[in-house]
Amino acid sequence: MKTRAAVAFGAGKPLEVMEVDLEGPRAGEVLVELKATGVCHTDAFTLSGDDPEGAFPTILGHEGAGVVVEVGAGVKSVAVGDTVIPLYTPECRECEYCLHPKTNLCQAIRTTQGKGVMPDGSSRFSLDGKPLMHYMGCSTFSNYTVLPEIAVAKIRNDAPVDKVCYIGCGVTTGVGAVVFDAKVEPGSRVVVFGLGGIGLNVIQAARMVGARQIVGVDINPAKVELAKKFGMTDFINPKEVHDVVEAIVDITRGGADYTFECIGNVNTMRQALEACHKGWGESIVIGVAGAGQEISTRPFQLVTGRVWRGSAFGGARGRTDVPTIVDWYMEGKLNIDDLITHTMPLDKINDAFDLMHEGKSIRSVILY
Ligand code: APR
Ligand code: ZN
């Protein structure tokens, strides 16, 4: 079949919207009609050429929602007409990782996904007979895409796809880090570095689980108003204090129970660890630092009980946990609407990247 898609032909080049060829689903695969997709920093990172796994030409996008229109042989867990969210972190429920209680990093299709192909080693997308690469196993910048069955989460049919697409990456990354990875307890004092799309989701999850104090740290005071709406109780601008760690220790009465780094800066990662309470404070790294960068601190920080850890896709097991997060949104426990600051048709997708680079959007969503 033919499908409209935004194709990335090379590093740093604008996406080109055109008709491409898409082969139908093979055994264990499903064909999904995307209704909406968010544009995320990770797409921009790969497009920039800095992503060591990035291969061109490719169809980017990994934060979508849509409807199943065809299933391949042997597919049992989803059917035609189901509303689904593609999963760049799949959940096979059989591999060593899926069976281990401490991780969500299913490895069932990791190798082929990283190479931009389906689990059988081939691509379903092509242009003039030449293959186009899949991206993060999703390629949601195409109106139709083929996904392995283990890489789709079936969600309730009454969920608005133009909003819940954001659960495909940003919402789950922030909310899951609080709920599934850190397991923040009611009454906790939480500090969030970076009040962008990820940080705001951390903040609203901390509020949802009953944190007593939620301190936001950002160099841009324009972020304060929205962050307060999402549950931030205190704000620290690093440019206005002598020492940001000292300021946090002060305001949290001895250090945070949990800190979350949602910037991707190795200096703020260190601050986030050192702002944790002696004896029990945990710092969770969510932001993705540039290739080759390293973190450092004095080991004494760890010896004295602080914990440093990371979180990918919020620790969520996609097929199990994504439908739950959709429920939280539908029940009014999570606000997604106010985070989607811009919408546009696929033709205007390059504008979404511009808005992101200019810091004008929290999230842009493409509506098919
Ligand atoms: N100190 C404090 N705040 C900072 C600093 C700093 N040194 N540098 C940037 N910020 C703030 C920005 O002002 C902005 O509000 O961090 C926020 C980052 O937000 P976004 O750019 O919207 O990024 P977001 O989508 O939230 O992603 C954050 O997570 O997924 C990763 O790749 C992504 O590493 C990035 C991080
Ligand atoms: Zn698995």
TrEMBL record:
The protein's name in its UniProt record: S-(hydroxymethyl)glutathione dehydrogenase
E.C. code: 1.1.1.284
One GO BP: formaldehyde catabolic process
Keywords annotated in UniProt: Metal-binding, NAD, Oxidoreductase, Zinc
Any matching Pfam family: ADH_N
Organism annotation: Pseudohongiella acticola
Domain of life: Bacteria
Phylogenetic placement of the source organism: Bacteria, Pseudomonadati, Pseudomonadota, Gammaproteobacteria, Pseudomonadales
GO annotations of cellular component type: cytosol
Reaction catalysis annotation: S-(hydroxymethyl)glutathione + NADP(+) = S-formylglutathione + NADPH + H(+); S-(hydroxymethyl)glutathione + NAD(+) = S-formylglutathione + NADH + H(+); a secondary alcohol + NAD(+) = a ketone + NADH + H(+); S-nitrosoglutathione + NADH + H(+) = S-(hydroxysulfenamide)glutathione + NAD(+)
Record-stated family: Belongs to the zinc-containing alcohol dehydrogenase family. Class-III subfamily.
Job of this protein: Has high formaldehyde dehydrogenase activity in the presence of glutathione and catalyzes the oxidation of normal alcohols in a reaction that is not GSH-dependent. In addition, hemithiolacetals other than those formed from GSH, including omega-thiol fatty acids, also are substrates. Also acts as a S-nitroso-glutathione reductase by catalyzing the NADH-dependent reduction of S-nitrosoglutathione.
